[in-house]
Design a protein that fits this description.
Elements lengths: L1 H19 L12 E4 L2 E3 L7 E2 L4 E4 H7 L3 E2 L9 E6 L2 E6 L4 E4 H14 L5 H6 L13 E2 L2 E5 H10 L3 E7 L4 E7 L3
Parallel strand pairs: 1-12
Antiparallel strand pairs: 1-2, 3-4, 4-10, 5-6, 6-7, 7-8, 9-10, 11-12
Length: 182
């Protein structure tokens, strides 16, 4: 009887250590720390990727983490979503790998529809939806889409956001400074 209690005690201890012993629990993040205006945010960042020369940021998660929200749009559909941040609307078109300002995207789609042409990367580049030197292509994986932090910062600045995105590789952190418009 004493031996059985001892075995049960050991098994319970192992079970408890397995549940609480440093392994992730539901919702825990193993990604980089995320700071907004100097304050660490409690956001899930396991799907962010910091590498030696670049960092990939998931667009929808990033926009939500800095105060953006899903916005109603006639373009909202499977693989296309509209988000609003500080009064500016953005389109994330995963099918065509586009992150653009809503007004520019809308103008391009209407122009292409009038000409009977499909949306392609060639006509996207002609439309100047992207910051100088960038072609707007970004990484896609599974059901999520991400963009290099430099392209993300450039696109947001081009649209009028006062934002800085820094990658602190030593601290394994993403530091964002975003000023609200006056």
């Amino acid at each position: 009887m004493m031996k059985r209690k001892w075995i049960i005690t050991i098994l319970l201890a192992v079970l408890l250590l397995g549940c609480f012993g440093g392994e992730p629990v539901a919702g825990a993040s193993w990604g980089p720390a995320f700071y907004l205006n100097g304050e660490k945010q409690d956001v899930y960042t396991s799907h962010y990727s910091i590498r030696e020369t670049d960092a990939i940021i998931p667009l929808d998660a990033f926009l939500k983490s800095v105060g953006g929200y899903y916005a109603d749009s006639p373009y909202n559909a499977y693989q296309v979503q509209c988000y609003e941040l500080n009064g500016i609307r953005y389109i994330i078109d995963e099918k065509h790998a586009i992150f653009a300002i809503d007004e520019q995207y809308d103008r391009l789609i209407k122009d292409l529809n009038a000409k009977g042409e499909p949306l392609t990367h060639a006509n996207l580049k002609e439309a100047d939806l992207f910051p100088d030197g960038d072609d707007g292509l970004w990484w896609k994986e599974g059901n999520g889409a991400g963009v290099d932090y430099r392209l993300l910062e450039s696109t947001l600045r081009k649209s009028g956001q006062d934002i800085t995105i820094e990658i602190d590789r030593d601290a394994f952190a993403i530091r964002v400074t975003l000023k609200e418009p006056e």
